[in-house]
Design a protein that fits this description.
Layout lengths: L1 H10 L6 H17 L6 H8 L3 H7 L3 H24 L5 H18 L3 H7 L1 H9 L4 H19 L9 H17 L10 H12 L10
Helix pairs in contact: 1-5, 2-3, 2-5, 3-4, 5-6, 6-7, 6-10, 6-11, 7-8, 9-10
Pfam family, one: TetR_N
Protein name: TetR family transcriptional regulator
InterPro entries: Homeodomain-like_sf, HTH-type_TetR-like_transc_reg, HTH_TetR, Tet_transcr_reg_TetR-rel_C_sf
Length: 209
């Protein structure tokens, strides 16, 4: 799901089915208000102004609808991430902005952040108990960004981009899944300082570089 969301973001894919879009919008509102467990396909269909049969023709099961809604939110996150890092002038700034953007976007997303806070057993297991697929998808995305920086000469050629991306991804995931009692994740400056002190130095592994 997350890998498809990333692919869609990079390709700027758009949905063209108006009824499906209405159902996705309605499901987003319904899940934000009532949570996933307490919501039914009938609830979503009613909110979208369509029949239950029409809803099931677009999404065969509630699980299929949930997957599409969550996927769309992650795609929006990837879109915003790519926009945020464009504001930075250096690779270090892009790491700092990217780290802060990731934590802020996911934690403050009304659906994904809300589920992590209210129904963590619905979303969190899929992030940490899926054989590593979710983290691997994000790791590949980060590694791709770092590889482009390296090819442009903005990151040391000695950097193992795969390993650095793995570490950055796991640090981010840890903050998301287990809120910190040391770092105030609602304080953007604190979050950026963590990135400056501990993530940016990984871009230049040799002393003095």
């Amino acid at each position: 799901m997350l890998e498809r969301a990333l692919a869609d973001a990079l390709e700027r894919a758009e949905e063209s089915d108006e009824i499906a879009l209405r159902l996705l919008d309605a499901a987003y509102e319904q899940f934000c208000r009532m949570g996933i467990r307490r919501s039914t396909m009938e609830d979503v269909a009613r909110r979208a102004g369509v029949s239950r049969i029409t809803a099931y023709r677009r999404f065969a099961t509630k699980d299929a609808l949930v997957e599409q809604v969550v996927r769309r939110e992650f795609r929006r996150y990837f879109d915003q991430f790519l926009l945020d890092i464009q504001r930075a002038e250096t690779a270090a700034d892009r790491v700092v902005l990217g780290f802060a953007s990731a934590l802020r976007a996911i934690r403050h997303n009304p659906l994904i952040g809300g589920l992590m806070a209210v129904e963590p057993d619905v979303l969190v297991p899929s992030m940490v108990s899926d054989g590593g697929n979710t983290l691997a998808t994000v790791q590949r995305f980060v590694a791709g960004q770092l590889r482009r920086e390296q090819q442009a000469g903005n990151v040391s050629e000695d950097v193992d981009v795969e390993l650095v991306a793995e570490l950055m991804t796991r640090v981010s995931a840890s903050f998301l899944v287990t809120p910190s009692q040391v770092v105030d994740l609602d304080d953007d400056e604190q979050v950026r300082e963590v990135a400056r002190r501990f993530l940016v130095p990984m871009l230049w592994p040799r002393p003095g570089r």
